[in-house]
Amino acid sequence: MGVFTFVCRNSGDEWTGKSVSGDLEASAGSTFDLQRKLVQTALSSDSSGGVQSSFSFVTPSSAVFQVIVGAPAAAAFVGGGAASAPSGGAAPAAEEKKEEKKEEKKEESEDEDMGFSLFD
């Protein structure tokens, strides 16, 4: 598994990204294109599996971009756990919705029994 961290800067019309450790770098006209090129650059150094990436602006003209190569098992585990959660908790959620509807109906009926109207 490889973790690549890039410092990205904008100078005029061009974004550049340089690796914090190593000689990897790329440049492009937009942050989107820069991210694609930096992922390809990271994959040229380490192509051991799936890719995860994160892009965060620090200032309007600088950002940090991190590429993680070779971590597909963790992503599959997180996705699988999230998918199974709603099926196990569907019944209690349905009961809560029914209770909320009953409470809303009670509140509406209390407002009607005050004996006056807003428009009188």
TrEMBL record:
Positions with biased composition (Low complexity): 80-93
Residue numbers spanned by region Disordered: 80-120
An example Gene Ontology molecular-function term: structural constituent of ribosome
Single GO cellular component term: ribosome
InterPro entries: RPP3
Residue ranges, compositional bias (Basic and acidic residues): 94-108
PANTHER family, sorted: 60S ACIDIC RIBOSOMAL PROTEIN P3-1-RELATED (PTHR47207), LARGE RIBOSOMAL SUBUNIT PROTEIN P3Y-RELATED (PTHR47207:SF2)
Name of the featured protein: 60S acidic ribosomal protein P3
Classification lineage: Eukaryota, Viridiplantae, Streptophyta, Embryophyta, Tracheophyta
